[in-house]
Amino acid sequence: MKHFTLSGLLALTLLVGCSSSNEIVPDVPPSVLYSEAQVSLQSGSWLTAIEKLEALDSRYPFGAYSEQVQLDLIYAYYKNDDLALGLATISRFLRLNPTHEKQDWVLYMRGLTHMAQDRNFMHDLFNIDRSDRDPEPVKLAFADFKKLLERFPESPYAEDSQKRMFALKNRLAEYDLATADFYLRREAWIAAINRSQELQKTYPDTIAARKSLDIQLEAYRQLKLDDAAKRTEQLIELNPL
Predict the structure, then answer these.
(1) Alpha helices in 44-188 (DSSP H)
(2) Residue 139: how many CB atoms within 10 A of its CB?
(3) How far is Cα 130 from Cα 147, in angstroms, rounded to an integer?
(4) Closest C-alpha to 149, from 115, 107, 109, 116
(5) How far is CA 88 from CA 78, 133, 200, 238, in A?
(6) Domain residues for 37?
(7) Is residue 27 part of a domain?
């Protein structure tokens, strides 16, 4: 009797899943398959749309619908929370179509997809503050929206991108604040001061920057640096919450 390792079973499951997905999509002309995919997209049936679009993409990679199929897949993956697949499709599209007329939209979707990687359903559901979680997807999203604004300032997605950058900046500032607070609670006074000052320099117009002054003040007091503590107190008075 053969025995499979857990990793082997997982790999087998993935292979079966991929092959069965292709099998359930009828072998019909591309125009029919594309029309069916559009109906699924419009009705919000993301998984069905993805199955049909993936079939189109694999069967007719250089067909008349090729570019639009990839664009539709980017959107469907995002809506279905298949974020890694969405990012892979975006990378492929940008590599193959570096001057495409919808490049601003693709950059916008990459920003949204990176933002979605920072989202956690359970945290949203129970309103849990997780400012200390890894902000790398946030940094990537910020860079995407920034690139969109620099390259396509007249894009219809520019205004929303700017608003999202403001929210992302606050998210990054909150992460730095959580880090500074962590150092303070561990009595790493110098590290707490350095992170607080870095936050104030990088994100000066955020609430987190103002809150970091309290951490900085406590750290200076613990180090008995009276002059620095007094200057920080003055900054707090000038910047009330």
Answers:
(1) 46-59, 66-79, 83-96, 103-117, 121-125, 136-151, 158-185
(2) 16
(3) 27
(4) 107
(5) 12, 23, 36, 48
(6) 22-98
(7) yes
The number of folded domains in the chain is 1
d(CA 107, CA 146): 10
- Tell me if 87 sits within 8 A of 71, measured CB to CB: no
Single-letter residue type at 120: N
Rounded Cα distance between 210 and 58, Å, is 53
139: alpha, beta or left? (left if phi > 0; alpha if psi -120 to 50) = alpha
Report yes or no on 135 lying in a domain.
Answer: no
Q: Please tell me the pTM assigned to this model.
A: 0.78
* Per-residue model confidence as pLDDT tens digits over 15-61: 444 433 445 777 788 899 999 999 999 999 999 999 999 999 999 88
